[in-house]
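Researcher: Next entry in the queue.
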Amino acid sequence: METYLEKTHDEGFFEVTQPFFAFRVLVIANPRFYPDDRTETKRKLIDFGFSVLRTSRFEPEKIADYLEGK
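Model: Structure for this entry, 70 residues:
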């Protein structure tokens, strides 16, 4: 992410990335693609997805909060 931002100077990245992260969570938490992940891991991922969708701006420093569903 840092490399991308350094090279592109994409000022709107943090306002539009939430749907991307939510989609990736659906893929990663899907047992068909990752059958060995624990339920706890999947729960944290889903909490992350819902949390970022509730924000108007993604803040990388809050990833731990997003994982806890805050």
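Model: The CA atoms of residues 14 and 58 lie 5 Å apart.
Researcher: Noted, moving on.
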